[in-house]
Specification:
alpha+beta, FAD/NAD(P)-binding domain, D-Amino Acid Oxidase, Chain A, domain 2, 2 domains, 8-stranded mixed beta sheet, 3-stranded antiparallel beta sheet, about 25% strand, binds flavin-adenine dinucleotide
Length: about 350
Amino acid sequence: MGSATAWQLARRGHSVVLLEQFGPGHQQGSSHGATRIFRVAYRDPTYVRLATESLRAWAELQQESGQVLLEQSGQIDHGDPEAIEQVVNNLEAAGFEAERLSPTQAQELWPGMRFDQAVVHSVDGGRVFADRTVQALHQCATTRGVTVAFHEPVQSIDSSADGVVLQTPLRKVHAGMVVIAAGAWVEDLLPGEFLLPKLTVSEQVPVHFRKRNPSMRWPSFLHHMHANADALTFGAYGMESPLAGSAATGSAASNAESLGLKVGVDNATDVGQVVAYVNKWHPGMHPDPVSSTQCLFTSTSDQQFILQRQGPIVVCSPCSGHGFKFTPMIGELVADMCEGLPARYNFSSQI
Ligand SMILES: Cc1cc2nc3c(=O)[nH]c(=O)nc-3n(C[C@H](O)[C@H](O)[C@H](O)COP(=O)(O)OP(=O)(O)OC[C@H]3O[C@@H](n4cnc5c(N)ncnc54)[C@H](O)[C@@H]3O)c2cc1C
């Protein structure tokens, strides 16, 4: 999110320094790995609108970087009928296609998967390529004059007469404004007077599985497993993703055989819980996990994003396990905040 913000600010002609505590492509935060789900299908209409705008922002980033970063290969929501009804209504209200299917019809289309109660297929969803996006943002930001400094942790942020002073082990950086987009570490950098909604940081373990039939395809999916769940809570999710050792390319069709399924189950603390889920709902997968990665999950209690400005400090944490799909658009919104433009979105996370 910090990289996207740096890129968007540089596009508007601002002078930007991006400070990162670790090295390029590090795996210690929330944005590493080959893929994330992209979807316009949301139960909360605010995020349908944000995803719609994000499609434009992804196109701009793809054009500037010359890379394929988003693949609209289709996405399924299935499970709790009330949740599916909300998704269908929101998609249709926003002018997107929403194909209702029975579980049996869905299984005919994706025979490796089992479907729960109600199903909607959104052709506009799919996946984004995460590692490649971060790299593209660094490349585009650098080309536009941003100084990207790796291995340079910010130790403190203090107000100054004309902005802020950041202390790193190497220097003091004086700036008119600072954007704190520090993911799981955001609270460590907050000046005392800055109040944020309560954040919880946990480690999530998405697990990769191999297909029994390598030519079989899977949609990106969200499984709404709980009736009466909050609008941004579901249960399990997954998407096709390159298995370790195979290259992440933008053309899924050309390398479908090297794709496995990356699956996450909410609140699963060990791989066994994800394996049990895959055994039941994805009989087309070998249930032995190929690999698992840890990823830091920063959440607000209502799964809403945090974009807050107080004087020369903006805090940017589009978190709660669903922020990546909006990355270039979040950069645009934060750039607006830095320039003092009116907020286009009101994310309602409570303090
Ligand atoms: C398991 C998992 C699955 C997910 N699935 C999806 C999905 O399918 N679709 C989707 O849209 N989203 C998904 N998300 C959410 C998405 O990945 C995150 O919302 C997003 O990556 C958050 O990015 P960030 O920039 O806020 O945090 P990060 O990527 O963690 O970036 C914060 C950066 O700040 C740096 N930093 C911290 N402190 C300092 C300091 N003091 N000085 C300098 N640098 C510092 C860190 O090193 C890090 O590089 C998922 C998240 C997880 C964990």
